[in-house]
Amino acid sequence: MDDHEIDLRPDVPATGEVLRFRGRPEKSEIREALKAAGVFRRVRLPAAAGALVIPLLGVRITPDGGSVDFGLVAVAAVYAAVFGVLAPRRILSRALKADGAREEKECVVDGSGIVVLRAGAEQARVSWEQLLRYHETPDIFAVVSRSGFKTCFFILPKRLMTSPGQVELVGALLDSRLRRA
């Protein structure tokens, strides 16, 4: 094995750089990563459940018939709109603001994990043991980790993987180290 190859077996400590890219993810790639990581689903599911349960609180069944409190139906509609439509948009805008407010970043994927550099200084280093799973879509790899109740993820855009076979190599490395979701 020469210096430019990497052993993909998880029990072998690997060294060697697999991917290095510079750039920023686009809005569509961030949206795709949030969707793949299940962030939108975890917001919309309670919105749907709440929109169904809230009107049921206002239903009264009596021997003469039933009645519905239309105030609670209106509250359910507002609840569904806020948590089902506006919250995912807010999450996306905050992710864009957090990523777009800074300059381009450089990301290195190697045998020890993922390193993010901004302006030449290391901002984040995550080992393979700290990462949980990854999602692959036609445009990105979304590598997911958890920090308390927060979902943390790295977006590896395939459009920035310009060398021949680099997408397949990164996919093979992720398959060998992480669980595919």
The separation of the N and C termini measures: 31 Å
The topology string of helices and strands comes to EHHEEHEEEEEEHE
Approximate helicity band: 25-40%
Structural class: alpha+beta
| Shape annotation | elongated
As a percent range, the share of strand residues is 25-35%
Major beta sheet, strand line-up: 1-4-5-6
Average pLDDT = 83
Residue windows where pLDDT falls under 50 for at least 5 positions: 1-13
Short key terms for the protein model shown above:
10 strands; four-stranded mixed beta sheet; 4 helices; disordered N terminus; single chain; 40% helix; four-stranded antiparallel beta sheet; alpha+beta; 181 residues
List the helices and strands and how they pair.
Elements: E1 17-23, H1 27-36, H2 39-57, E2 59-62, E3 65-68, H3 70-100, E4 105-110, E5 113-118, E6 121-127, E7 133-136, E8 140-147, E9 150-157, H4 166-177, E10 179-180
Parallel strand pairs: 7-10
Antiparallel strand pairs: 1-4, 2-3, 4-5, 5-6, 7-8, 8-9
Helix pairs in contact: 2-3
Walk me through the structure.
By secondary structure, the chain is α+β, with helices and mostly antiparallel strands. Helices cover about 40% and strands about 30% of the residues. It has four helices and ten strands; from the N terminus they run βααββαββββββαβ. The chain has helices spanning about 25-35, 40-55, 70-100, 165-175; strands at about 15-25, 60, 65-70, 105-110, 115-120, 120-125, 135, 140-145, 150-155, 180. Strands 1-4-5-6 form a four-stranded antiparallel sheet, with helices on one face. A four-stranded mixed sheet has the order 9-8-7-10, sandwiched between helices. The two termini are about 30 Å apart. The relative contact order is 0.19.
